[in-house]
Design brief:
Structural class: mainly alpha
Number of strands: 3
Radius of gyration: 16 Å
Strand content: 5-15%
Order of helices and strands: HHHHHEEE
Helix content: 40-55%
Shape: elongated
Number of helices: 5
Bound molecules: zinc ion
Strand order of the largest sheet: 2-1-3
């Protein structure tokens, strides 16, 4: 999964928040708009925010299935011909101490608070 895809999906969801969340939308909309307005979007924060609620998690999965980008480093024209981007790659979270790695396949999927040894928060691997 590419950051651009997540941002694009989040932008669509931002516009749909009132439909998705009803009266609860205001607070989420404010936070999400602020995140998306930055020059460099903190994708992890966007994922964290949209992952908090089942409605926005489901919407994110839906949007990501729809959004496809031409690979940045693919040969010119190749993606346009096949119409395929690369398949969604898992995002990995890793423990800095023991190297325990946890793959996340869908945006909003919960990440364990720690490795099995309890070393502390897992950090996203870029
Ligand atoms: Zn560990």
């Amino acid at each position: 999964m590419r950051d651009e895809e997540i941002v694009a999906a989040a932008q669509v969801i931002c516009a749909r928040l009132r439909v998705l969340l009803g009266e609860d939308a205001a607070g989420v909309e404010e936070r999400l708009s602020a995140l998306l307005a930055r020059a460099v979007v903190d994708v992890d924060a966007v994922i964290e925010l949209l992952g908090r609620r089942e409605e926005t998690r489901a919407a994110m999965r839906e949007e990501l299935a729809r959004v496809r980008f031409v690979p940045r480093d693919g040969p010119p024209g190749f993606a346009a011909v096949t119409g395929l981007g690369d398949p969604a790659a898992p995002i990995f979270y890793r423990c800095g101490e023991c190297g325990y790695t946890y793959p996340v396949f869908e945006v909003g999927e919960p990440v364990p608070a720690s490795c099995q040894e309890g070393h502390g928060p897992l950090v996203r691997v870029e």
